[in-house]
Each structure stands twice: as structure tokens, then as C-alpha cells.
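Retro notes - structure team

What went well: the batch runner handled both jobs without manual restarts.
What didn't: labels got mixed up in the shared folder, which is why I'm recording both outputs here explicitly, each with its sequence directly above its C-alpha cells.

Job 1
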Amino acid sequence: MTTTCYSDLTKQITSNLAPLRTGVPQVMKSFSEMGRAAIADGALDAKTKELIALAIGVATRCDGCIGFHAKALVRLGATEAEVHETLGVAVYMGGGPSAMYAANAVAAFNEFAASALPAGS
């Protein structure tokens, strides 16, 4: 059994992405911008969003995702307990959300939110 060194892995991935940044610069720039927008503080803070990203990385078995999001969580001051609880949810779910399920979740949330409004609102 080999052990992954996530520091080395993230450095290697960053290096391996260089040809894509040159070959498809607009795609890679757009992906980077999307990532910054997705993680930016909003209704959820950046740490919570990174915990979610870590859980998805685990659920989809993406070592690179695990490395990059674990690194970000350290930078954001996540506690070991927060990470453990997040990983408990990832184990429970056993899979990752997809765009179709995310869209359905938004529709369901909007439906329930609308039904919770007082009559005449």
C-alpha cells in the first residue's frame, strides 16, 4: 500500500496543469474564476464551503481535490473536529452530488420556502 503525500501531489498537479493553462487558457481562467466565486464568503463562509468541497472530494475519490481543499482548510483555521464531522457526512453519503441533483435541490428549496411564506406574500 502506497501512502499519498498530499503536499507533493498538489505541487505535481499544479505543475501538470501548466500545459492546460497554455493550451486552453480561457477554460482554465474561467475554471479558476468559478472556484473563487464558489468559495467566496456569502450566506456560507469560505471555511464551510471548503468543508463541503472536501466532503465532495472524498465522496468522489479525488486525491487532488482532497489535497487542495485540506490545504485551504488549514489556511482557513478549520479544526480537526470540523474536518472529522465533515468526513463523517461524506462517508454517510457515499457519493457526490451532481449538477442535476443540485438543480433539483434548488427547486425543492424554493418550493418549500414559497410554501412557508405567509398567505398573501
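Job 2
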Amino acid sequence: MDTRIIEGVLFDMDNTVLRSRIDFAAMKAAVADYLRAIGALPPHVDPREHTTATLLALAAAQGGLTPEGHEEAMCICTVHEKAGMHDADLEEGATELLEALRQRGLRLAIVTNNAREAAVEALERTGILTYFELVVGREQMISMKPHPSGYLVAKAHFADVPEQGWIAVGDSWIDGRAACEANVPFVHYGTSSEALDSRGIPYAGRIGQLLELLGFVKGA
């Protein structure tokens, strides 16, 4: 990471600030079954090689996903998200990190593939919603991560933060891909960056504990 002054942080939500209990495998399987049932997903596609978002993007690119079909797929996702968010806890160190960043005057936002309503509900219930000036859910995106539109929406919202004033943090390769394509340096939160390395996704650093992120914003 270079010595640029960081003025804002774009956070993923699930398994980044919240310890999500969403069964992402079950959600992806349910969406894949639905897409196959309506003929929007080629039979040779292996869902194990995709995320829910990339399955939907593939179905849309194939031309078999109508707006009504997309809406139904989103309803399937929302059911799984709300069930998984019901008992979600904070990631260790989340409140301490957010408070420290706020004390330093940084602008904070959430960019999540979840429905915005479900995200806001979970953030409010866990007591950290007020730290974020903006919550970008999938409804505000052209397409979900790994598409960069969620990050671009967030950057556009904070017109006073310079282009080089952002970093993003998340736990998944889709966060890294989206951040990279939005020209935002990405800090990977997790025990291994193998998924990013295997896809050639660059990242500014890796942290195993959330409070380590403070090392990337010393210039703030």
C-alpha cells in the first residue's frame, strides 16, 4: 500500500463486519434450481464454479432471464438472507474498529450483495448502523459483485472524497474483483487469499483481525 491519505472505507458486510449465518451454498443451490426450472441456465453449468451473483449474471447474459424471473430469484435470496441474518453477530473487533475510524474522521459505507432492507435491519440490530453514512444493497447496483457498480455508487455518493482516498475491505474474491475494477485498493480480511491469488486479483494487503485495518489508514 502506498502513502496515499485514506479518507473513506468501503466495507463488505457478511463475514467482514457481521459474522453471517447465511447458508450461501443452500441459497446458491436454490437459485440454480430455479434458473434451471425456467430454462435460464444451461444444463452444463456447474454451480460449484460460481457464486449466486455470477450464476445470475450468466443467466442474464444467456438472454433467458426475464425481469420477472430475476425478481423471483431475488426473492429466493432474500428468504435465505433474512434467515441467516436473524442471529448474526458482530465480527470480533468490529465495533472497536468502526469507532476508531470514526474518531479519525473517515467516511464509512457498506457495499453488500444482500437486499438493502435485510442489511440495514441486521446492522441496526447489532448496533453498528450509525457508523455508516451509506448502505448500498443490490437494489442500488447495476449488477451484484463481482461487478464494480456497488463501489462506484458509493464513490459517487461521497463526492468530496478524492478518487485516491478510498480503500475497500472484504472477505471474498468477489469483493476484491469489484473493488479492483472500481479502482479501489482492496484489503482482504481472512485467513487465506488463495481464492484471490488463483484469479489474479490484486490486493493491497491481508488482515487476520479487523483492528489490523488501522495500519492501512495511518495517514487519515
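One thing worth noting from job 2: DSSP finds eight helices and eight strands in the chain.
We'll revisit the folder naming next retro.
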